[in-house]
Write a structure and sequence with these properties.
GO terms for molecular function: delta(3,5)-delta(2,4)-dienoyl-CoA isomerase activity. With 292 residues, the protein is an alpha/beta fold. Helix content is 51%, strand content 15%. It has two domains: 167 residues, 2-enoyl-CoA Hydratase, Chain A, domain 1, CATH 3.90.226.10; 50 residues, Lyase 2-enoyl-coa Hydratase, Chain  A, domain 2 (Orthogonal Bundle).
């Protein structure tokens, strides 16, 4: 596999077909990594996302990134105050459009796990502040260590969360009252509450090591299944979230009219009968010359 690790993101392959991504810092490199995994690997079947730090998952918006936001705003204010400024630079609408262009690449990065053909499992521990909730909300499955604490923190720095939390959480939890309370107040809530409202599907006793181990075991189980069936299930579930039942059934009909032709169905039946692991082709067969 092409070495996709970087200064801020470590990528390893702890088990066949499974990658472990450990974040030290976010932003556009995060999205680029997931896109690169899809582009440069042939047979990844699951990814576990964790933190490189032993005590926290995410401390929220990086100070350098906050300074970027403030610089954009400050530039607009300076332009307005300058008598001989370029007329375009003083127009509020144009400044707003420029700010949108700054935000869009980061939103695109956050949603990268949704674009992957394979499931992404978030294994979280310690503090998860603001941006960390954006990150895990776009993952397929979320496990939390029992020491995890969450907070939607953006209001305390004077802005509304704009990277995914407010879009995802109402649909993940189905509890708008809870989401509004946490977003308005920035209160911390524990892993037990996150499990109660459906933000995480499992709480693992312990910290980082324990939750990552549990997530890797889940990834190993997923990796034994037909990659075609798993990626199809992921696509159809994501479609169902944002469409009506009738629309999803129509989409499913079209999807499976192609995907039911896979060799994976016969291999699944044969391997189950023989009580052996399935021997499935790489999902991205065009990269078959590459190793994982």
């Amino acid at each position: 596999m092409k070495d996709l690790s970087s200064k801020w993101i470590k990528l390893t392959e702890p088990f066949p077909h499974i990658l472990l991504v450990e974040l030290a810092r976010f932003w556009k490199a995060y999205g680029a990594l997931f896109d690169s995994i899809s582009e440069h690997t042939s047979d990844v079947r699951a990814v576990v996302l964790s933190s490189a730090f032993p005590e926290i998952f995410s401390a929220g918006l990086d100070c350098a990134d906050l300074h970027l936001w403030l610089a954009v705003l400050e530039a607009g204010e300076i332009a307005k105050a300058t008598a001989d400024a370029d007329p375009n630079s003083t127009d509020a609408a144009r400044i707003a459009l420029d700010f949108q262009r700054q935000i869009q690449p980061f939103q695109q990065a956050i949603t990268a796990p949704e674009r992957c053909l394979f499931p992404v499992i978030a294994a979280v521990h310690g503090m998860i502040v603001g941006l960390g909730i954006d990150i895990i909300s776009a993952c397929d499955i979320r496990y939390a260590a029992s020491n995890t604490k969450f907070t939607i923190k953006e209001i305390d720095i004077g802005l509304a969360a704009d990277m995914g939390t407010l879009a995802y959480l109402p649909k993940i939890t189905g509890n708008m009252s809870f989401v509004r309370e946490m977003a308005y107040t920035t209160q911390w809530f524990p892993a037990s509450k996150a499990e109660q409202v459906g933000l995480v599907s499992k709480v693992v006793e312990g910290g980082k090591d324990e939750v990552v181990a549990a997530a890797l075991e889940l990834a190993k189980l997923i990796a034994t299944k037909s990659p075609v069936a798993v990626t199809g299930t992921k696509r159809l579930l994501s479609h169902a979230r944002d469409h009506s039942v009738a629309e999803n059934l129509e989409y499913t009909k079209l999807w499976n009219s192609a995907m039911l032709q896979t060799q994976d169905m016969m291999e699944t039946l044969t391997s189950t009968k023989a009580k052996r692991p399935g021997n499935f082709l790489p999902l991205n067969f065009k990269f078959g010359q590459s190793k994982l």
